[in-house]
Design a protein that fits this description.
By secondary structure, the chain is mostly beta strands. The chain is 10% helix and 41% strand.
Length: 113
């Protein structure tokens, strides 16, 4: 699915099924430069992520109901450390680590389809 993240084009896989939500980007060894995975999390809540079995470093943007990014965090491969947003989120977008910083995308920027 094509997204715009703070005005930048991104091609994202869409994780909406329970299986896709559980698997995420686990076991992959690479992710294209402007590609990611968008997770549909349901009602606004503090949904947390971890990196068990994920082999590549990622950054995650937690997205609120209004489509604005509420928090961005870097995550390390194979870590069990929980990454939880600072405010309720309905979606999350995982990208290669540092993508948001390199693109100048910050909390408050909008994600659109």
């Amino acid at each position: 699915m094509a997204l715009r993240v703070g005005g930048h084009p991104v091609q994202a896989e869409y994780a909406a099924t329970p299986e896709a939500l559980r698997e995420g980007l686990m076991h992959r060894t690479a992710l294209a430069a402007d590609a990611g995975m968008l997770f549909e999390l349901g009602e606004p809540d503090i949904h947390c992520f971890w990196m068990k079995n994920t082999l590549i470093p990622l950054s995650i943007a937690f997205i609120g109901r209004d489509g604005r990014i509420v928090d961005i965090q870097d995550m390390q491969p194979r870590s069990l450390e929980p990454h939880c947003p600072t405010a309720p989120a309905t979606q999350a977008l995982e990208m290669n680590q540092g993508w948001f910083a390199r693109a100048g995308v910050r909390a408050g920027d909008r994600v659109t389809r």
